[in-house]
Design brief:
The protein has 186 residues and is of the alpha/beta class. The chain has five helices and seven strands. Helices cover 26% and strands 16% of the residues.
């Protein structure tokens, strides 16, 4: 977690201090030093690690605090810390043979695969790179996680074709995947 030494854990603090440290970590992820929402510049690099505590009962006050602070911005975020964790459902429609060509990647009835020229700032470098080669489902999940600030464990893919370990995917020519929340990894 940013700002805390690797060998330091929340459990090394008293309960009140741990709550304060955790609230500060969450606040730093989403808000700048003036208290303004970071918008597209969320500090989400370690979000999967920080979100691991969202189900720990002793930190529930901290989770409620950050939920309250993020309420005005919830339509700009894929997930917020929650117990139980929010699951993001994505539907993949792909060709039957490997490498599976992505036809659609659907979230909330919107296809996230768009012509490259329509993307502008909506496609992060991680997502855009998927346009240039084959990738695994795990790589797709990892890139979506990083680009949209969603812990990997909170992503669920529903796929129209049967896949096996080692099966690869490709993006359609001249198309990229955009984050449904306008997130950009900086």
């Amino acid at each position: 977690m940013a700002g805390i030494k690797r060998n330091m854990h929340l459990s090394s603090f008293t309960s009140n201090k741990a709550q304060c440290v955790l609230a500060g970590i969450f606040y730093e992820i989403y808000f700048n030093s003036e208290g303004d929402f970071r918008g597209l510049k969320i500090k989400g690099k370690c979000i999967s690690n920080v979100f691991k505590i969202q189900t720990v009962k002793k930190y529930s006050k901290c989770i409620r605090f950050i939920q309250k602070e993020l309420e005005p911005y919830k339509n700009q975020l894929a997930v917020v810390p929650n117990n139980p964790p929010m699951i993001i459902e994505l539907e993949i429609i792909a060709t039957k043979t490997s490498p599976h060509k992505l036809r659609k990647l659907i979230f909330a009835d919107n296809n996230l695969i768009v012509p490259t020229d329509e993307n502008d700032e909506e496609v992060s470098n991680k997502m855009w790179r998927l346009s240039f080669g084959k990738f695994s489902l795990e790589t797709l999940a990892s890139n979506i996680s990083e680009a949209c600030f969603i812990p990997v464990k909170q992503l669920n893919f529903n796929i129209n074709v049967e896949t096996k370990d080692g099966h690869l995917f490709v993006s359609p020519k001249d198309k990229s995947i955009r984050c449904p929340f306008g997130c950009i990894v900086t």
